[in-house]
Design goal:
Layout: H1 2-23, H2 29-48, H3 64-77, H4 91-101, H5 104-117
Helix pairs in contact: 1-2, 1-3, 2-4, 3-4
Length: 122
Amino acid sequence: MRYRHFMHYCEGSLMPLRLLKVRSPNDNKDYLDDCFATHFAFLEEQLSSAPDGGPYLCGATLSGADFVMSYPVLLVTGGWGNLDVDKARFPKLFGYAEALRNIESYRKAEEKIVDLEKEFAA
């Protein structure tokens, strides 16, 4: 059930806010910042209660849910959108992002992007 939730949560709940932020970054800023804070607090709690102690959303093993969630999590923890995402307030979220960045296949993909594009920003 947890796996299915995150497979749809990203696209149905988190990404629409990201699109609103991209399309009109100054419109509804307070509303969007509050919504993002609510989602980050939810993700922090979910990471704290991950089966088998995590470190991934659905347990000790990387899953498709982690791949789906990696895009918004890596954007947010990387400074996208000038959101007020405090590392001290969301330590599990930042730790999760770091765990994703340390996956060998992620690092290889990042290297490939740098080879092709001469830079990488996440």
